[in-house]
């Protein structure tokens, strides 16, 4: 059963702490993405990766970091430099860039500050 | 500056009637448009897409219309069912996805009353 798995579903961060959100896909998709959703807002792109070992900043990359060591995995680290990290984080993947193929999303991780 | 606008935060329709969700965009370079459906605490689910070379695309109860001159697209759901109640996001990409991301609207919450 192919899909995108995000974990954990809920995550709490202490002040000054880095946390890592997991995203795994078994759809054999080349491209992967991280979005952030705030209440009443659309999704905003944090980072995306077209291929292994390559990734690009999106619209709101400050305070975040990613890695793409395997095709199936695209973890997102929310660093202490991100001053307003409370949000719903969504991972997505697609065959190539989104110009002709839709992105498919995981069920998200909700991050809160303790 | 919002490039993709969904001006109606909410819409309520009666079961069996038509639901029409609207989306306007400002960037004339957008050439691929998508609609996603999202339930609370879940990731968005891809519904239907349309490229700029078409003005209509149909998939079962869902039809998307694109008016390039007006920079406007709409999603029609006929007939509407209670299970269609969700938040609907319009999204767009430019230049065949070469910019690497989708631009999302803020969403319209659809409520279908039995």
Order of helices and strands of chain A: EEEEEEEEEEE
Order of helices and strands of chain B: EEEEEEEEEEE
Average pLDDT score of chain B: 92
Overall geometry of chain B:
globular
> Strand-residue fraction of chain A?
over 45%
Q: How many strands in all of chain A?
A: 11
Apparent shape of chain A? globular
Number of strands of chain B: 11
Give me the oligomer status.
heterodimer
Helix content of chain B: under 10%
What's the gyration radius of chain A in Å? 13 Å
Mean pLDDT of chain A: 91
Percentage of residues assigned to helices of chain A: under 10%
How far is the first residue's CA from the last residue's CA of chain A?
35 Å
Residue windows where pLDDT falls under 50 for at least 5 positions of chain B: none
Q: Can you describe what's shown?
A:
The complex is a heterodimer of chains A (114) and B (114). With 114 residues, chain A is mainly beta. Chain A is 0% helix and 46% strand. Chain A contains no helices and 11 strands. In chain A, strands 2, 4, 5, 6, 9, 10 and 11 form a 7-stranded mixed sheet that branches. In chain A, strand 4 (31-37) and strand 5 (43-49) form a beta hairpin. With 114 residues, chain B is mainly beta. Helix content of chain B is 0%, strand content 55%. In chain B, the strands form 2 sheets. In chain B, strands 2, 4, 5, 9, 10 and 11 form a 6-stranded mixed sheet that branches. A 5-stranded antiparallel sheet of chain B has the order 1-3-8-7-6, with no helix packed on it. Chain B has strands spanning 4-5, 10-14, 19-25, 30-38, 45-51, 56-59, 62-67, 72-77, 86-94, 103-104, 108-113. Chain A binds chain B through residues 4, 6, 33, 35, 40-45, 48, 50, 56, 58-59, 90, 92, 96-100, 102-108, 110, and chain B through 4, 9, 31-32, 34, 36, 41-46, 49, 51, 89, 91, 93, 95-98, 100-107.
């Amino acid at each position: 059963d192919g899909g995108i798995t995000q974990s954990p579903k809920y995550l709490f961060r202490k002040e000054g702490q880095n946390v890592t959100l997991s995203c795994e896909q078994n759809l054999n998709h080349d491209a992967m993405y991280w979005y952030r959703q705030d209440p009443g807002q659309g999704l905003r792109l944090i980072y995306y990766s077209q291929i292994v070992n390559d990734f690009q900043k999106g619209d709101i990359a400050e305070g975040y970091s990613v890695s793409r060591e395997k095709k199936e995995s695209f973890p997102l680290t929310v660093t202490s430099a991100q001053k307003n990290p409370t949000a719903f984080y969504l991972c997505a993947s697609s065959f190539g860039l989104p110009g002709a193929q839709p992105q498919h999303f995981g069920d998200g991780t909700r991050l809160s500050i303790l | 500056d919002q490039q993709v606008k969904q001006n109606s935060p909410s819409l309520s329709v009666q079961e069996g009637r038509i639901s029409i969700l609207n989306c306007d965009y400002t960037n004339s370079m957008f050439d691929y448009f998508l609609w996603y459906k999202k339930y609370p605490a879940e990731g968005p689910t891809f519904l239907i897409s349309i490229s700029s070379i078409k003005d209509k695309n149909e998939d079962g109860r869902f039809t998307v219309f694109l008016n390039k001159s007006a920079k406007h697209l709409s999603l029609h759901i006929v007939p509407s069912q209670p299970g269609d109640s969700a938040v609907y996001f319009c999204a767009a990409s430019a230049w065949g996805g070469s910019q690497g991301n989708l631009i999302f609207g803020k969403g319209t919450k659809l409520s279908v009353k039995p």
